[in-house]
Amino acid sequence: MIFSIASITFFIINLMPGDPVDFYLAQGGAEYFDPELIQKLRIEMNLDKPLWVRYIIWIGKVIRLDLGYSFVSREKVADIIQRVIWNTIQLVIASLTLAIIVGLFLGVISAVNRYSMRDYLSRVVSIFGISMPSFWLGIMAIRILSVSLGWFPSQGLSTFTTTEVSFIEAFRDRLMHIILPAAILSTHPLCRISRMTRSSMLDVLEQDYVTTARAKGLKERIVIYKHALRNALLPVVTTIGLEIARLVGGAVIIETVFAWPGIGRCLVAATFSRDYPLIMGTVIVLALVIVLTNLITDITYSFLDPRIKR
Amino acid sequence: MVKLKFSKKTLRRGLQYTAMVLFVLTLITPQFIATIDAQEPKYFFKITNLLRPPPRSEMIDLMKEEFAKIGIDYDCEIVESAVFSGHQKQAYFYGKTYEEGGADMTVSKNGWQRLEPGVGYGFYFYSGFKARYMKGSEHAVQCRWYNPRFDKLFETMNTETDFEKRKMMVSEMGEIVEDELPKFILWFEIHAIPTIAELTDFEPIWGGLIEYYRSLAFAKIKGKTEADDVTFIMAQSSKIDYASPFWATGVLNSPFINLAYDMLVDLDQTTKPIPALAKSWDISEDGLKYTFYLHDDVYWHDGTKFTSEDVKWSLETYMHPDIKYMYANIAKFPVKSMETPDDYTLVINLEKPHIPLLARLAYLPIQSKQLWEGVEVKDMMGHENAMEPCGTGPFKVVNWEREEYIELASNDNWYGGCPFIDHLVIKFIPESSTALSALETGEVHMLQWYYTSDIMGELDRIDEDPRFQVFKYPSGATEVFTINNENPNLDDYYVRKAINHIIPREHICEDILMGYGEPAGQLFPSTHWAYNPNIKPAEYNVTLAREYMEKAGYNFELLEPQEIPKSTDYTPLLAVGIVGFGVGSGLTYGFLRKRKI
């Protein structure tokens, strides 16, 4: 699976117009055009070889877990990815947590109070969240919440300081920095989870066992959260599994808007500079993350639904 | 787990269907592509523009209307930098037009900032007269324009030691360019550096794209004293990828290089060489021997002493064939030998006089020989030393978070005096609006010029805010239309003249660039020594432009208002030399007819 994704990406990227040497020239300016220099650079980057030769060389390296060196910074691709991926994981975990908690909560409220004012409000919010492009939301959030109100820092990972800070201070600072990007990144999954929870809860609430539970005289809260929600979760977990993949994709935009030094921003920069090894490395890692998430989702099923275990 | 089972029959049928589909596809695809090609309207020329700065695309849209007045219809393609450069390469090396994979016209910047006019003219106009007879030869010629007189002047100018004579030569070259128009010079860019109001004594060098920030070494902050620990944060749109100038590929890394390293000589506003690491120098009568006397109190950031050996080694390394990047191209001078009679004297012997030498040296950061001792040139790239920059500049690198920021601390030992700013941080913020927000929230204290074109609309508001100030500087770049003179439509003297008069420079500078541009008719601005006062920006004049078009052999007729025919309708007419165009809402239709000669 990962192998085929990587191969397809390799060809797409190599067939894109413009190559790394062109990018160098664009950076350096027209005055640096020199045929000899161009040829030297092409040889150094193996670009003088035909595509299929490059493919074989590259795939041979990938099998040996060697992602090569970045064309731009000359560092090992694995090192660069290692440096940035932790930031992305933080961001994705933060937004996923937010999305699951708030999404489930909104969905349940919506389903329980069907056709009430709360239901309509939560649905309007969901539709709004799904329809708005995240970069616009991001810019708006920065303008309003950080520039006008000054509640949150507008960008970056942490506040620069020359003095020593305690661990708690550093943690608090990181938390303040992560809130905005995580909240914006979580909008789409949050809304989808809330909509899915609502529809799935509505189905479940009409089932006989819910009526039985109510008839037993159980408290409404226990009926909803223990009997109904647990059974309604199965399709929601599928959605969450899919949403993780989307979150990783969405991180590309959010990380650029919020200057968050993660794998998404790294991918954007690498694409513009035609840094082939870095693009390929990032894509392979992202594909790996997505495949793993799907696996984890499947395993989670068995915990939620004992029937699947058999 | 479900096992998929296929019978042989199903498999065979599946294969048959696939083969059929493939067969049909092979049959129809060429036709399909041909149909698309045929529907593509033909234009007088195609403009290739870079994806990034918005004012350029607005300008091109606006000019469409103007160009229609002389019957020229063009199309514009907006591409990202790697593709843009690919088009340029095809045009410069092989003269390919847009249709052939090259370019007809590109919107670009010609940076003259640190270039001796001779070098600058060479880069941008040098036609390489010989190249004319070697078509297809790998010789980059930006405009594909050939003028033997210009080439001759250029070649003699680089060896002419008499300043007055050189000045006359530059003037003459400027006039040739003004007359023949191998490219259209549009405007001088004005860059904006928004910063906090407390910053004082900050005087960016007139015309430095990358040297602006070096002035931070002398800058002060109102309300702070020497005893205070001053931190100053600057936003930069791309991250720094390499710390060593040996393989810096772009200008965006350079602000940092100019803060951490020193050059042998520096240039002032008029590109006159002034002392830097060399406190003075002598040039022999024949222009073949340069003797530099160096400062004897300069230390590297690691504490070791700077000597003439470092300079010699740095220059030799830049000229080494294994160094292939940006600075390698600057270090191209006819050096015969280099000598170091003592620790603070350097002698450069040239094979022939090379006047741009000083200007070129002002571009090359000097590096520590001791640091690189024992490392082969070919192994330098990616070497750990390269990731721990060590220069002699006003600021030294103390912490480099590759993805976030680079932290520089003031260098107490700097020969120019210890800077007032104690910690200078360059933060990497790719998105312009985010960078502006960060300035407003106080997270950063200065935005680099690179954001100017994206935030032009906001700059007045920022300037009026008492918390901020905006430094505006004529940049070291002149905006131009580089044209490929091998495009048959543009290879006409009168057509080029007509186009030059139909470009509304004033209007563009005032309305689209919001004052961040100044109409230009030559490469060098009025403060530059090579400025020629006789050359004025071409005036906007439709009548004159039409006259030129007629001189070029185009018979201009405006027909009664009528429907614009579909693009395919007039495509075949092109074969006999007729170009159609549409004006305004599509009511008028005129055409140009090439007169039969």
List keywords for this structure.
heterodimer; A: 310 residues; mainly alpha; 13 helices; 0% strand; globular; B: 597 residues; alpha+beta; six-stranded mixed sheet; five-stranded mixed sheet; 18 helices; 22 strands; 31% helix
Q: Could you characterize what this model shows?
A:
Chain A has helices spanning 2-15, 20-28, 35-44, 51-63, 77-112, 117-131, 134-148, 167-205, 208-215, 220-257, 263-272, 276-304, 306-309. Chain A is mainly alpha-helical and 310 residues long. The mean pLDDT of chain A is 82. Chain B has 18 helices and 22 strands. In chain B, helix 5 runs antiparallel to helix 6 and helix 15 packs antiparallel against helix 17 (542-551). The longest helix of chain B is centred in the first third of the chain and has 32 residues, at 8-39. The termini of chain B are far apart. The interface between A and B is large, with 59 and 65 residues.
- Describe the global form of chain B: globular
**Overall pLDDT metric of chain A:** 82
- Helix amount of chain A, in percent? over 70%
Hey, roughly how much beta strand do the residues of chain B contain? 15-25%
Strand order of the largest sheet of chain B: 2-1-3-18-4-19
Topology of chain A as a string of helices (H) and strands (E): HHHHHHHHHHHHH
Instruction: Work out the helicity level of chain B.
Output: 25-40%
Largest beta-sheet details of chain A: none
Poorly predicted ranges of chain A: none
Overall number of strands of chain B: 22
Instruction: Give the N-terminus to C-terminus distance of chain A in angstroms.
Output: 26 Å
Distinct helical segment count of chain A = 13
Q: Give average pLDDT of chain B, whole number.
A: 78
Distance between the termini of chain B: 80 Å
Low-confidence stretches of chain B: 132-137, 558-597
Please, how many helices of chain B? 18
Main sheet makeup of chain B: 6 strands, mixed
* Structural class by helix and strand composition of chain B: alpha+beta
What Rg of chain A, in angstroms, do the CA atoms define? 24 Å
Shape of chain A: globular
